[in-house]
Specification:
The chain is mainly α. It has helices spanning 3-15, 18-94.
Amino acid sequence: MDITSATRLANILIDGGSAAVVVLLLLAIAWLIADRRRVLKKLASAEQELLDEVHARDLKLDNLTDSYFRTIMGITEALNGLKIVLAEINGRLLK
């Protein structure tokens, strides 16, 4: 807004009347629009932060699940190895 427009608006407000009411309403609407944009921008930012946090938690959960699976597979292999060894020992003892 340049100086002449601001001066013109100030003169309309000082003069009063219906034109002043219209100007006040237009200024209020402009302020509300600017405020709405600011709020929407904050909401979008907060939403993105939440999505990033959820994504990070999902990755941690995936890593934990993979680690659990690898551990269980290792234990299963170890138990199968012990089962074979015990079967061999049992076979030798029975001979």
